[in-house]
Amino acid sequence: MFEKILIANRGEIALRIIRTCREMGIQTVAVFSTADADSLHVRFADEAVCIGPAPSSDSYLNIPRLMAACEITNADAIHPGYGFLAENADFAEICGEYGIKFIGPTPEHIKRMGDKITAKATMIAASVPVVPGSDGLLTDVEEGKRIADKIGYPVILKATAGGGGKGMREVWQEEDFENQWNMARNEAMASFGNDGMYIEKFVEEPRHIEFQIAGDQFGNVCHLSERECSIQRRHQKLVEESPSPFMTDELREEMGQAAILAGKAINYEGVGTVEFLVDKHRNFYFMEMNTRIQVEHPVTEEVIDHDLIKEQIKIAAGIPISGENYLPKVHAIECRINAEDVYKGFRPSPGTITSLHTAKGHGVRVDTHVYAGYSISPYYDSLIAKLICRARTREECITKMERALEEFIVEGVKTTIPFHKKLMKDEKFRSGDFHTGFLNDFDMGESEK
Predict the structure, then answer these.
(1) What secondary structure does DSSP assign to 37-105, as a single string?
(2) Does residue 158 lie in a domain region?
(3) CA separation for the pair 26, 358 (Å, rounded)
(4) Residue 150's domain is classified under what CATH number?
(5) Cys bridge to 161: 99, 157, 192, 423, which one at CB 3.0-4.6 A?
(6) What is the rounded distance in angstroms from the CA atom of residue 103 to the CA atom of residue 101?
(7) Which of 146, 180, 201 is the last residue in one of the domains?
């Protein structure tokens, strides 16, 4: 087992990793930018190293400074968390060259699943269902139009190096194709330095359902059940839950086995997530694989009573998994509390939190790194807390979440709490009648006084 782990991240996920390491008897090293000098992950780690100024490119994305921090603290492993360098194959490779264990998959796994064209080809070879579309990158706009005519409109253009909804455009008719093609390519180049595009059939009224998987160094792969992630805005998830209200026992078995096939196809090592689109007829298609811990991992932890960060560390240390597939025992819902003004298009709301009271009680969990007096920087993601509720049934879980949201008070900045309160009362959400386009017609109404 590792003696000291450097956490190449910040915020709530850095704190989350520190807690598990402490329970496992592993020392921790926090890294921080000058903007994060007063953050809790700096306070609670055994050691802390400043790695640069506030901009991510000068700190959390600066590989030489991270490796230097490893060297001066004698860390023997790095946990990347999510975001930043968590899915950077070059970073994982450099860690290996310096004799530092990267707690995650191999560089080859990251490369194969990070490029969506390669990932799709791998899934086809493994007999995992995929959405009809191009076999590889499109050579030009005319080829895209020909494929769109063949598979039928609507279609969706996607950047091969995409993520977070960038470089994606829906096309509903041929006359709009070229304009959407140009916009998608320009956005992809600006965001990723890669304007490679591919095309897929647009799945109408899709649900975004993902399966958590774990694979060890001995070829064993299992799944840890599903998460429903269809409540999202511009492809950014806002609410996740498990089990999915759309799921049946038969569908769970089929999707779970497909997720395992996906992991075994690349001899996956680590904790990862296989994401699917599921249409209204319960046909499912591979979308992508995330080779890291997810923001929403607490949902799975709550429904199967399993520490996924601990599982990551054990796998990286060469400990085999049980190989058992897990099924949800209870229901859990996670609401992402972001520093955003929901009455102004979810505009970021940086500033200082003047007062904070987090929800408590049986079946209520809060993962956060903020406190009264904490300054939310405009340099980083707006996530400030994750509120997770657990109960025996979905109905009870929603009721518990309503109570917890009323009790969760943040003053000094705007947050997404008003949105979550309204969502929990929405009849369609409560009945499970929603898909990824649900929020397109969701009316927040007027601001609370």
Answers:
(1) TT-HHHHHSSEEEEEESSSGGGTTT-HHHHHHHHHHHT--EEE--SSTTTT-HHHHHHHHHTT-EESSS
(2) yes
(3) 28
(4) 3.30.1490.20
(5) 192
(6) 6
(7) 201
* 291 and 196 within one domain: no
Share of the chain above pLDDT 70, in %: 99
Please tell me whether residues 221 and 364 are part of one structural domain: yes
- Angle in degrees, 0-180, between the axes of helices 107-114 and 89-97, rounded to the nearest 10: 170
Q: Would you say residue 217 lies in a domain?
A: yes
Structure tokens at 89: 């194959």
Range of the domain at 229: 207-441
**What pLDDT digit, counting tens, does each position of 151-180 carry?**
999 999 999 887 767 899 999 999 999 999
CATH number at residue 35: 3.40.50.20
Alpha helix (H) residue ranges in 33-77: 40-44, 63-73
Please count the other Cβ atoms lying within 10 Å of the Cβ belonging to residue 422.
16
Is the link from the previous residue into 53 a cis peptide, with omega within 30 of 0? no
Beta bridge partners of 211: 226, 274
Which is the catalytic residue, given 292, 336, 365, 394?
Answer: 292
Same domain, 150 and 30: no
- For range 395-418, the mean pLDDT: 98
CATH code of the domain in which 418 resides: 3.30.470.20
Does residue 83 lie in a domain region? yes
The confidence score (pLDDT) of residue 357 equals 98
Q: Is 16 an active-site residue?
A: no
Distance CA 242, CA 432 (A): 12
Does any domain span residue 255? yes
List pLDDT tens digits, range 243-288: 999 999 999 999 999 999 999 999 999 999 999 999 999 999 999 9
Largest CA distance in the chain: 61
Q: Could you tell me if 190 and 260 lie in one domain?
A: no
pLDDT at 117: 82
CB burial readout 143-170, b (16+ within 10 A) else e: ebbebbeeeeeebbbbbbbbbeebbbbe
**Which tokens is 341 given?**
């003004």
Query: What is the model's pTM?
Result: 0.90
At residue 449, the pLDDT reads 53
Neighbours of 375 (CB within 10 A): 15
Q: Which of 43-47, 204-208, 314-318, 329-333 has the lowest mean pLDDT?
A: 204-208
Single-letter code of the amino acid located at 374: Y
pLDDT reading at 202 higher than 70: yes
Whether residue 77 is found in the same domain as residue 96: yes
Count of the separate structural domains present in the chain: 3
pLDDT single digits (tens) 319-338: 999 999 999 999 999 999 99
